[in-house]
Amino acid sequence: MSSVSLLFLCFIWLLIDAEIDVDLSVDKTNWIDPSDPFSSSALFRSHLVEPNKCDPDQNLQKCIQEYRNLHDELLALRVNRANSVDSLMKHVLRRFMEKLHINLNDSGSIFKKAQVTLSQHDLSVMRRYLDTEKAVEEFGLREDLRAVLENFLVESDIRSDHSLFTFLHNLLPYIMLLNVILLIPAALFFLRLTVSTRKLATFLLLSTFCWSCYATYMRKYQEILAERFLRTDAVFRRGGGVCSPQGLLSEAFDVMLSYVRIKQKSECLKAYEDELIAPLWQVDPLQVIAEVLSNFFLGGLPASGTHLNLFFNNFFVDTPFHLALVKMLFAIAFPLAIAYAIYLYANCYTQKRQKNSEKEQRRIKPKETTRTAISRSNSQAELILSSAESETSQNSN
């Protein structure tokens, strides 16, 4: 033990004699703690301005900048993934166009017949692609699917885009409109060939009359319903009690009014009629027919009077008195001239028809005379033959 202590004292004496610093303290300012997650981050390196001090604003800006960088990287990854899917679809679509011999620069319609060819392996690849949930991340499956989609569709019949089939297909939307346009003249031509003009006019008038009767009947029926709804609404607004007994003053007032006006149905009677009588039986068919006939014969008079009034108002507006007289004479003479021209035309037409009929009769008369002469000669020959036969029969007897 004494020897060990002696050696230690000798070692200390040598260190003192050589003036060596025996301070064993170590500078730990740049050391990094491996268990501290913030010490190894780039955000917190060299952030100490002074010992045990930091700049919070600078650290916040660094955090925001790093967050933005991470966000941009995430968006770039998403865009790259979407672009990869989009590039696959573009590639497959281009292959479709090439297989079908379709030029995208053509502006017209294209009609092709395509043939689909899928093997068992191709079907299994498509089935796996549709069943998987992460097909975008499986690069091998996407490549197999691209190979399948490139070759499964080919053109079976090459047809020119300017063929007759394309031209007729472009006309398909207008064929129905053309049929509708041609249907009306075709129907009129068919009716003209099968039915005479008189029968066609009679049919049109009869169909128009029937439709007018139906429309008038339905209008009256709806008017009766509207009146009933109005009376019912008025009763509900008054709180009911239409058939309640009236007071002495109201009865006396009704008696006095009966001397100066025609007595009408009471509100109570109208209420019972609305409940018991159906509106269908309140419309008189004869009244409907009479109204239709009166509208047919007299319906044009109001419109004619309105237009005539408008004509005279516009004809004499802003006109001096002497010019108004001239206009009035012209307005009287012009219809008379038109009527006289129509009379002359009708007279000339009837004279021409009479002349034509006389010519036809003259042509027919010689034929009739020859026919009558032939018939007379035939009758005379028959009489001669009959007399000769009678004489021969008498001689034989």
From TrEMBL:
Transmembrane intervals: 171-193, 200-217, 321-346
Biased composition range(s): Polar residues: 371-380
Keyword annotations of the record: Membrane, Signal, Transmembrane, Transmembrane helix
Topology of the protein relative to the lipid bilayer: Multi-pass membrane protein
Protein localization: Membrane
Region (Disordered) location: 356-380
The protein's name: Chloride channel CLIC-like protein 1
